[in-house]
Amino acid sequence: MIRYYSKTSIGYSHIRENKVCQDYSCSYHDDERTIVTTCDGHGGKVYFRSHLGSKFASSATMSVLCRFDDSLLDKLCREDVLGKLKLEILCEWNALVERDIAQNPFSDEETSALSEDELFRLKTSPMMAYGTTLHGIMALSGRLYCVSLGDGGMFAIKNGTIEEVFKDSDDDPVANVTYSMCQENAYDHFKAEILDLNGIDGAVICTDGTINPYRNIDNFNRSFVTPIISHLSKGEYLAVDDFMVKLGTEIGIGDDVSLGLIIKDESRNNEV
Amino acid sequence: MNDRIAKQRLNVMILVDCSKSMQGERIAQVNSALRDIKRQLVEMQDENSNVDFYLTVITFSNDARLLNGDKMKPIRDFDFSDIKGGGWSNLHTAYIRLADLLKKESRGGIMPDFGGVAPILLLMTDGHPTKWPLSEEMAALRKLAWFNVALKYGIAIELNDKRTVDCLKDFVSGNGDVIECYDAALLKRIIKIIVLTASKVKSRSNSVHADKNQSITVEVRQKVQQALSEVDDWEW
User: How many domains does chain B have?
Assistant: First the structure.
């Protein structure tokens, strides 16, 4: 049996600044597959539609993963399958953004605060207004499909420990600088992987507002992931909801927070 | 679940030349500045700052060392015995030590694995680096994201030497400024202006947004320039 969870809560700095929540997360579950996503719109003044960008990123990931046929792995090599997933998600996101711009062109109100330089950048790359990160995982046929672009976190859970699915390097962006769906070379930074679900207990994804207050992996696992899984395993979803709201609105770093989890629940499975 | 949550960490890292030429007034000014900085950063943190301050001091002469052996000391716990001058000015050893520190905690450095605020780096020297050029060591630093985003200042102490100033300019890499201190008696004030102004601006900025780091850097540079210009002309 699979347990899954997703939740987003606005951060206190956005409440203070009267801004909408820039994060978006969602989940999907049927007999065959379980999907969760967490996305974080950048929220700066040039990214004035990033609350939509994050929603579109979630939506694009859901669409692509929902229609993904895992028999493709019998026909194509693993790298080609991963490349196809990344490309389809990027194309889908770009299509959603283009449609939104066509239906709702940028207004003077939205762009009035931008400098000439920023306006020029926006003109040459309108996608920028929708800048967002993306993390998505899907459990399907004993495998876990992982897609990730930008900061935040994606970890495999195993025997009470967590391990980064994608190892970053010392030259990856830091200090609130992140790769983004809106970059022209987004594909180059888009990571994808397929894990064997038999070898792990599940996976957790989150936006930077959730993980940054914990600073390092060990603390994040000990103080956040382990207690969250304990609650979810007991079916205490409301307790986790309450904590996520508290993390965003009171005790975190002020940023919006999002969390997504897929965990195997062997004990429950045995009961069934 | 909320017992191990912390504010964002702001690392202030100071690289101090403690070669023989720094003996006397110059090193005394540095020691006094560090004591004042500790006291004032503690006060700043108590005033509802958005960050936790951590101070790391690298001293370099024949070798580069962490002052008191401490790396990333919470500002309240920072304490030290006076730095003393002596030996050569092996700046390259300080760069190597700095590169080790500017890595993520999970890789043995002091920078957070997740989040964090771009650090403040201050390098001060009063003479030629023993090894020249430092291209290899600078290349290693430039590979580190935390070095590239850092706000960097260099202080050239009582020297009118293009090579050393160029070396400091190379270090700040356009993301900060090089200040020429023509009178060692002013060194303490200059150090304090740089560190405290930068710390104040960065700690009060809400760094949730990705595009804010650059504007914070611009604001710090303007404020530091303004504060330095207020030092009376006759003092220079």
Answer: 1
Interface of A with B (CB under 8 A): 11, 13-14, 42-47, 131, 151, 153, 170-178, 208-209, 211-217, 219-220, 222-224, 227-228, 243, 246-247, 251-255
Domain containing residue B74: CATH number: 3.40.50.410
Give the tens place of pLDDT for each residue, A148-164.
999 999 999 999 999 99
Distance (Å, rounded) from C-alpha B68 to C-alpha B83?
10
Contact B114 A11 (CB under 8 A): no
How far apart CA B42 and CA B86 sit, in angstroms, is: 31
Q: Which domain holds residue B20?
A: 8-235
Is residue B235 over pLDDT 50?
no
Specify the pairing of strand A202-206 against strand B8-17. Answer: unpaired
d(CA A163, CA A243): 23
Q: What is the pLDDT of residues B10-57, one digit of tens each?
A: 899 999 999 999 999 999 999 999 999 999 999 998 886 678 899 999
Residue B101 DSSP SS3: helix
ipTM associated with this complex: 0.78
Kindly report the backbone phi and psi dihedral angles of residue A54, in degrees, each rounded to the nearest multiple of 5, phi listed first: -70, -35
The answer to whether the CB of A108 falls within 8 A of the CB of A155 is no
Q: How many angstroms separate the Cα of B59 from the Cα of each of A237, B54, B65, B164, B172? A: 52, 17, 5, 17, 18
Long-range CB contact pairs, A88-92, < 8 A, 24+? A88/A64, A89/A57, A89/A60, A89/A61, A89/A64, A89/A134, A89/A136, A89/A147, A89/A190, A90/A60, A90/A181, A90/A186, A90/A187, A90/A190, A92/A59, A92/A60, A92/A63, A92/A64
| CB pair distance less than 8 Å for B144 and A227 | no
- Domain extent, residue A137, equals 2-271
Put simply, the answer to whether B6 touches A215 (Cβ < 8 Å) is yes
Maximum mean pLDDT: which of A168-177, A178-187, B152-161: A178-187
Tell me, what CATH number does A7's domain have?
3.60.40.10
Q: Which two tokens stand for residue B143?
A: 């590979």
CA separation for the pair A186, B37 (Å, rounded): 43
Cβ–Cβ under 8 Å, residues A37 and A134? yes
- CA pair distance A125, A185, nearest whole angstrom: 12
Residue B208 confidence (pLDDT) above 50? no
User: For chain A, what is the domain count?
Assistant: 1
Dihedral of CA atoms A204, A206, A208, A211 in degrees, nearest 10, equals -40
* Contact call for residues A247 and A257 (beta carbons, < 8 A): yes
Residues A39, A132: contact at Cβ < 8 Å?
Answer: yes
Contact A146, A194 (CB under 8 A): yes
Identify whether B3 is part of a domain: no
